[in-house]
Amino acid sequence: MAKKKSQLKPNPPIISISGLSSDEAGRLLLTLIWDFFSIASHLGNIRTIWANMAGITGPQWNILTATDYLDRGDGVPVGEIANKLHVKSTFVTAQSKLMEMSGHLRRRPSRKDKRIVLLSLTPQAIHKVNAFYDIRRRMDQTMFGEFSGQEFQQLVQQVEAIRTQAERALQELKNAPAS
Known about the structure:
Blueprint: H1 22-54, H2 58-70, E1 76-77, H3 78-85, H4 89-101, E2 105-109, E3 117-121, H5 123-131, H6 133-144, H7 149-175
Antiparallel strand pairs: 1-3, 2-3
């Protein structure tokens, strides 16, 4: 027979945050985590729509936009794209070869080290990305336009801090002994 909830041992506090009771901190933490999952789902759906509009897959869209974001004119090493996207270099290599064949990316060896492959957008890809500019601007305005400049800067800094801490937490979990 299953125990009634009132007979179960209460869970220990999830997190301690100064100025909040453990119950309130735990409730807020779970709200935040579920909101992050929801945001990730919405952004994934948005990515799929952008990718479909460009005639590529969602992961290829990530590679395309990461290349656009990171390229300062000389191309971007495959490894740098892989690090930005948290995927293996072999995945970026395979996908970039497909994207080269479809005319979205240019691949060339680095002048400094021929083992390094640099990626850059083709004129065709730049044209596609630019064709979405007005829609993307409206979408970004919808998502972030109500923040003041200071609030937006703080949000970016806080999310970057959470990302860094999430990376640390993942590493701790990977190193934790199995129970």
